[in-house]
């Protein structure tokens, strides 16, 4: 039986610099000057930062432009008042807070607290929404101070989480009132007004 001739292995050829092997990607010779050239379309960090600053300034401008002067007419309860806005009588519901109802503990005290914050002061409102009753939901300012936050911080209102979920200033104001037992937080377990209302429907 004839024997098979042994397989002759080819001599390995020396690899020249820059020549690709079978398992590597295609070799690309570097351009003159070294390194990969930067894309001309890539924005510089300074330009990006300038754009961000411009957008923030624009948002702040329009946010301030939405504040309108108003004249106080009356206080309805702890979180509602009537104002004259552009010659129209408007009922305003304070945004992001909820005060005790009249029949709840601190209900009348909350109304007196609101009256004390807005009476004989320069009033401004910043509209946020309109509720199902047609009331203007707004942040109210008295002599430049945020009345909504002041009511919460003094312990006469709750931070209304369902309607102002990510409002950090109101959250911190309530935390401060709770910690220092201000207003309604002097009670051991005060009932939020939304729970009080739901039990009476």
From TrEMBL:
It comes from the Bacteria. Pfam families: SNase (PF00565). The keyword Oxidoreductase does not apply. The chain crosses the membrane at residues 46-62. Residues 10-29 have a biased composition (Basic residues). Keywords: Endonuclease, Hydrolase, Membrane, Nuclease, Transmembrane, Transmembrane helix. PROSITE patterns: TNASE_1, TNASE_2, TNASE_3. One of its GO terms (molecular function) is hydrolase activity. The keyword Nucleotide-binding does not apply. Residues 1-42 are annotated as: Disordered. Residues 66-187 form the TNase-like domain. This is Thermonuclease family protein. It comes from Pseudohalioglobus sediminis.
